[in-house]
């Protein structure tokens, strides 16, 4: 049987389906945004800085599994029993290993208490499993079901925190971690029931040796590629917190949250582009490159436009959104918008290059721009004086993200030239 899926996009795109597709791109991002806003208001600057580091680690783990398993189930033929067994085996192995590593690492190092570390490890496992269910629903074009799943996740996470807050007790980081576990487990259960019958079965694992190899061959590159940027952000947070302190970095995280909708739109759009490009592999690379160019232009303009508006409004609206403790810096707000625009100029090209089989080369480009970004952040933090040392961080990352996007586009241009010659 062919290794790749043959599911086609619907012939007719009704307004309802289009609305569902758009809503599904934003629902998960909106939930994460609201949860972090709640953390900013209830935990303060230093608490937000710690929560941001932890949530960044969750994003890294989810990116690894999403690239390895989620992208593989989108591109490979998951109806094949061997492939399905391979997908399920890798999901169990990766989620378990990541959860245990997080628990032991954070608990043993003393960064978290053992209670918090166990809650965080469980939350990480639940996150990656729930995200895989979302990818199955997306691959089946059940976009409104994804919105329901994301709403349940948000309701469960925020609900537990709200109960603690309304009871008069002080909300702590532990409550947020426990809320993540509750929300993701509830969303996973609901998501399984919303899956189509063809995707709601467990394959016999003895038939999955060849499937594991197929998933590994494709998923290893995607997992590395999509995890580079969130890993870079996580390492950046560690460098920044060590260099400027939790409170100062908490201010920068507050600025990021203020412009998060623009940044989250980029991430959501990239998921949609991947699913779309994966189903149009028979089209010419030139045609898909032109579509990616349009996506880059639109996302960049929107990101920068929203960033300018946010920077102007930050002094008056900042405390209303992230809390009275924060005094948002306009340059920091604008910096995150610049970073979002730069990411918009890189993400669609990375998605297209991955679908066209240039995973290894794309990974090299992203590794280079990420290493340069971290080096730049380390230099800025050590040389510049506050508050410029903090505000300059997103500008530095944006500069190298843009350079990486240009490099990846050149890879695709080379493929276009090769197709013309052949």
Would you write up a description of this structure?
The protein is mainly alpha-helical. It has two domains: 15-243, no CATH class; 245-422, no CATH class. The protein contains 14 helices and no strands. The protein has helices at residues 15-75, 81-109, 114-139, 143-166, 173-194, 209-244, 246-258, 260-278, 285-322, 330-344, 347-355, 359-383, 388-391, 393-421. Helix 1 (15-75) packs across helix 7, helix 6 (209-244) crosses helix 7 and helix 9 (285-322) runs antiparallel to helix 10 (330-344). The chain is globular. The model is unreliable at 1-12 (pLDDT under 50).
Helix content bin: over 70%
Number of helices: 14
Q: Return the string of H and E elements.
A: HHHHHHHHHHHHHH
**What portion of residues belong to β-strands?**
under 5%
β-strand number:
0
Oligomer: single chain
Q: First CA to last CA: what distance?
A: 28 Å
How many domain units? 2
Q: State the low-pLDDT regions, or none.
A: 1-12
How is the main sheet built? none
Radius of gyration from CA coordinates: 21 Å
Overall structural class, as computed from helix and strand content, comes to: mainly alpha
- The outline comes out as globular
Overall pLDDT metric: 83
């Amino acid at each position: 049987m062919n290794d790749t899926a043959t599911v086609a996009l619907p012939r007719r795109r009704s307004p309802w389906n289009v609305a569902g597709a758009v809503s599904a791109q934003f629902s998960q991002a909106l939930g994460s945004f609201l949860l972090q806003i709640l953390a900013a208001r209830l935990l303060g600057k230093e608490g937000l800085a710690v929560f941001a580091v932890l949530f960044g680690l969750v994003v890294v783990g989810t990116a690894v599994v999403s690239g390895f398993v989620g992208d593989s189930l989108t591109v490979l033929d998951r109806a094949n029993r061997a492939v399905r067994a391979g997908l399920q085996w890798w999901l169990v192995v990766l989620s378990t290993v990541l959860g245990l590593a997080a628990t032991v690492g954070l608990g043993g190092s003393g960064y978290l208490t053992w209670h918090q570390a166990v809650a965080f490890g469980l939350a990480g496992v639940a996150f990656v499993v729930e995200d895989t269910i979302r990818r199955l629903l997306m691959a089946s074009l059940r976009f409104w079901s994804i919105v329901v799943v994301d709403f349940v996740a948000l309701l469960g996470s925020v609900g537990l925190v709200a109960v603690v807050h309304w009871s008069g007790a002080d909300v702590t980081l532990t409550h947020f971690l426990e809320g993540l576990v509750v929300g993701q487990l509830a969303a996973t259960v609901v998501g399984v029931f919303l899956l189509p019958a063809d995707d709601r079965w467990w394959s016999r694992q003895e038939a999955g040796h060849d499937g594991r190899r197929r998933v590994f061959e494709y998923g290893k590159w995607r997992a590395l590629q999509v995890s580079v940027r969130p890993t870079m952000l996580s390492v950046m947070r560690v460098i920044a917190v060590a260099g400027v302190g939790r409170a100062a970095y908490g201010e920068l995280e507050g600025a990021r949250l203020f412009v998060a909708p623009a940044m989250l739109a980029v991430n959501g759009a990239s998921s949609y582009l991947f699913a779309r490009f994966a189903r149009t592999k028979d089209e010419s690379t030139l045609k898909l490159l032109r579509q990616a160019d349009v996506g880059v232009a639109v996302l960049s303009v929107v990101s920068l436009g929203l960033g300018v508006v946010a920077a102007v409004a930050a002094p008056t609206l900042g405390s209303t959104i992230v809390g009275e403790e924060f005094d948002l810096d306009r340059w920091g707000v604008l910096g995150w918008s610049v970073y979002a625009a730069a990411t918009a100029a890189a993400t669609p090209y990375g998605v297209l290059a991955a679908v066209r089989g240039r995973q290894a080369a794309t990974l090299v480009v992203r590794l280079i721009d990420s290493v340069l970004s971290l080096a730049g952040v380390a230099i800025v933090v050590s040389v510049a004086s506050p508050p410029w040392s903090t505000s300059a961080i997103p500008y530095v990352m944006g500069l190298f993200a843009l350079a990486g996007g240009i490099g990846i586009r050149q890879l695709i241009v080379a493929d276009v030239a090769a197709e013309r010659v052949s």
